[in-house]
C-alpha cells in the first residue's frame, strides 16, 4: 500500500496550520469499527418529517437496544452540555411525504444538524421508495431526498457521512441490521449513498437473537480471491464476525492463500474459478463444513488497455474471471441441496466497482465486467428469494491496495482527494460492507449495489 | 494378515521440488518442512489442532537440527502440544514415516498423524575435517591455558579443508550412480529404454499439472509453483543427446548408459501426508483417498555380496505379496521410485527373471511382468526431482489420489534407498 503522506502532513500540528492558511483540504481520521465498540460514540438526535412517518418507532427501539442516548427535541440540552452540543448521529424519519412542500421539514431538521454532528458523525435519512408512489407529487418528493442527501454529503465535514435508506412498504420492522451498519463505524467510507430495503418481494428472515459483535457466528463463508488485498481482509473480517472461512484463490497464489486461511483458522481451496466444475469443487470442499451459508465473489482481475489497443484474449480473461465465473458458480449454488449445499437463507455478495458505474479510461473490459455484475445481481435477486437467500454487490471506489499503489502519483492523489471524505478507503471498509450484507439479519436487503467510495467525485 | 484397522490417507501437501542451488538455495530443511506443514494445515483447517504425532526426517541434516520435526511443528500453525520424532532411512524416510504413523493409527494409539520428509542439497551441512575436530576437542578438554595452547599448536592448514557430504556409499566409496551403473550393466538395461522411461515420466508429470492434479497436493513456495526439474517437452531424441555420467567400475566406458537425464538430479523440497483413522476423517467430513494396507522393508548385501545397491525392493515386494496373498499383477497402479531409470527397469527385469526369482527369492516361478501403462502414471522422481527424505511423502498421496480418482483399486509403492535398503507398501481403496 502506498503511504498517504499528505494526510500525515495536514494532520500534524504544523501541517494543520499551513493547510488552514492556504486552504488545503483537511483529511479527517475516520472512526473504524472494532469488537466491543459502542454503536455510537455519543448521543443521537431523532426527528420525524411528517405525522405519517412509519419508521421512527423502529429507530427508537434499535437505538434503545444499543444503549444510545436519544433526543427527539432538538432544543433540549444533551448530557451535561447545552442544546448546541455535538451529537454522534442524527436520524430523520422522512417517510410519509405527500408533496415537495413537505421537504421543508426535512430541511428544518437537517440545517442545525449539519453543524452539530461530530467527527465521523452519521446523518441518516429514511424515506419511502419512489417507485412505490403513483402520484407525481409524491414520487417527486420521495425522489428529492436523494438529491438532498447526496448534496448534503458533500457538505458534511470531519468524516461525517450522510446516507439515504429507502424503506419499502411493510419493511419497517426489517431495518435493524441496516440501521446498525449505517450508524456504526463499519460504514466509515460509505457516504452520499442510497440503499433500498425490502424492495424484492418474498423475503424472509429475522434479526432476533443476533449477536451484533459476531453477527455471522456459525456460518460458513467462501471468499474467492482471498490470498491477498481486499479478499484477504474480507476473510479476516468474516472470521472476526464469527464465520468459518473457506479461502479460495488460484493455485499459483497458494502460499499467500495458506497464510490467509491459517490466519483466520479456516481452510484453503486452491482453485481456478474459471475452470470447468469450479462450483462443484467449492461445494465438494465445503461438505466438510456442512455446506455453505455465504459466498463472496471477490476474485477479479484487470487487464487495462485503451479500447483502441485491446485484444480479445485479454478481454475474455477479464470477462471470464470477473463475470462468467460468478454466473457459473451461482448456477451450481442455486441448484445445490439445502442440506450440504448452499443453505436456505444463504448470502451471495459480489464485488462490482466504481468503474462499472461511471466507467474508467483504459478499463473498458473491467468496466464492462463490473457493470455486468450489477445486472447479475439484479436478475439473481428474485431467484434467490425462493430460498430466503439474498445477493448484493459492493462497488468500491478508490481503495488503498497494491493495485492503487501502482498508479501514477497524480492519478492516485486525484483518486484520494476528489471525494467527500478526501482520502482513499481501506480494504476493511469494503470488507465491513460485505460482512454486513452477509449477515443473516440483512435478510431484507436483496438486489442492492452499494458504493464504498467516500462519495468519490470521479465516479459520480 | 488382518490388522485391527487400516490408516486412511486423507490428503497431503508438498512444496514444489527445486533443483539444487536454485529456487530454494537459501531455504533450510526447517523452512521447507514448516512451509509444507503450514500448507497442509491450511488445506484441512488444522490451525491449533493437536496431531497424535508428526513424524518426518531428512537425510542431509545439520547437527543443530537433531529435533528437526519438532522445530518445524513449533514454527507451524499446528498446536505446540503436537509430539514429534525424526526418522532417517535414506530415500525410504518419507514412506517409512507414513508406515510408522499408519501403524500407530492401526493399533489405535493415535487417531491422526502427519508423515513427512525434507531434504536440501543446497543448504547442506559442512563438517570440519576429522583432524581439526580432534584438535578442537582436545583443546576443549584441556584444563589449563597452557594445555589449550599446546592443543591448538597442533593446528595445520590442511585441517581447514571441510567435509562436504557426498552422495557416496561409505563402505564402498562409490557414488550411488556408479553402483546403479553396475546393476544396469548386469541386467543389460539399454540406454533407449532408460530414456523412454524418463521422457514418459516428464510427459506424465506435465499432464498431471495441466489437469490440476496437484492443485490439492501442493502449495507454492518461494515463487515456485511447479517442480522446476520438469521438462514437459522432453523426448527420447533430446535425452539421447546427453553424454553418460555414471560408469560401471571396470566396465567399458563406451557402453555406459546413465546420463544426467535418466538419473534424478540433486533436489531440494519437502512433502507431508495426512493420515488418520476413518472415524477421525468422517467426523470432519474429510475424504478417505485410500488405506495403507501393509508394508515391508528389505536390505541386501551390496558390500560383500553381489547384489546391486538399489535392488532391495526386488526382495521386499515378493515378501509383501505373499503375506497379502497377492500376485504382482493384482495392482491397478505401480509407483516405483525413479532413483535412476535403470533402477526401475532392473527391478522389473529381476521380477521377470526365472533365474533371479528362483535363486535369489526362492520362488518356483518369476513374479512376471507388469502392465507398463499402470506405472508412475502421474510422473515420478526423474521428472519431479528427488529430495531424498521427501520422496515417500510425495508418492503416498500421489498414488492415493490416483486410486481415489479411479473410483478405487490397489496400488504398489516401491522405494529403493541408500545402504542397500528398500521400503515397499500397498495402498487400497
Report what the structure shows.
The complex is a heterodimer of chains A (460) and B (429). By secondary structure, chain A is an alpha/beta fold. Chain A folds into three domains: 1-29, no CATH class; 31-197, Rossmann fold (3-Layer(aba) Sandwich), CATH 3.40.50.720; 220-452, Rossmann fold (3-Layer(aba) Sandwich). Chain A has helices spanning 5-10, 13-22, 56-65, 103-116, 136-155, 176-183, 229-240, 254-263, 278-286, 312-335, 354-358, 364-385, 402-405, 409-417, 427-437; strands at residues 44-48, 70-71, 87-93, 117-128, 161-167, 194-197, 220-224, 244-249, 267-270, 292-297, 342-351, 390-396, 449-452. A seven-stranded parallel sheet of chain A has the order 9-8-7-10-11-12-13, sandwiched between helices. In chain A, helix 7 crosses helix 15. Chain A is globular. The two termini of chain A are 25 Å apart. The relative contact order of chain A is 0.12. The mean pLDDT of chain A is 94. The longest helix of chain B has 20 residues, at 191-210. In chain B, the strands form two sheets. In chain B, strands 1, 2, 3, 4, 5, 8, 9, 10, 11 and 12 form a ten-stranded mixed sheet that branches. Chain B is of the alpha+beta class and 429 residues long. Among the domains of chain B are: 130-160; 176-212 and 293-428, 3-Layer(aba) Sandwich (Peroxisomal Thiolase, Chain A, domain 1), CATH 3.40.47.10. In chain B, strand 3, helix 2 (68-75) and strand 4 form a beta-alpha-beta unit. Chain A binds chain B through residues 244, 247, 251-255, 257-259, 261-262, 265-272, 275, 287-290, and chain B through 35, 38-39, 41-45, 47-48, 77, 212, 214-216, 218-221, 225, 284-286.
How large is the share of residues in beta strands of chain A? 15-25%
What summary fits the major beta sheet of chain B? 10 strands, mixed
Quote the distance from N terminus to C terminus of chain B: 17 Å
Morphology of chain B: globular
Count the beta strands of chain A. 13
Q: pLDDT average of chain A, as an integer?
A: 94
Which CATH architecture of the largest domain in chain A would you pick? 3-Layer(aba) Sandwich
* Rg result of chain A: 22 Å
Major sheet summary line of chain A: 7 strands, parallel
Poorly predicted ranges of chain B: none
What is the string of SSEs of chain B from the N terminus onward?
EEHEHEHEHHHHHEEEHEHEHHHHEE
* Portion in helices of chain A: 25-40%
Write out the strand line-up for the largest beta sheet of chain A, numbering strands in chain order.
Answer: 9-8-7-10-11-12-13
**Count of domain modules of chain A:** 3
Number of helices of chain A: 15
What's the architecture of the domain at 176-212 and 293-428 in chain B, going by CATH? 3-Layer(aba) Sandwich
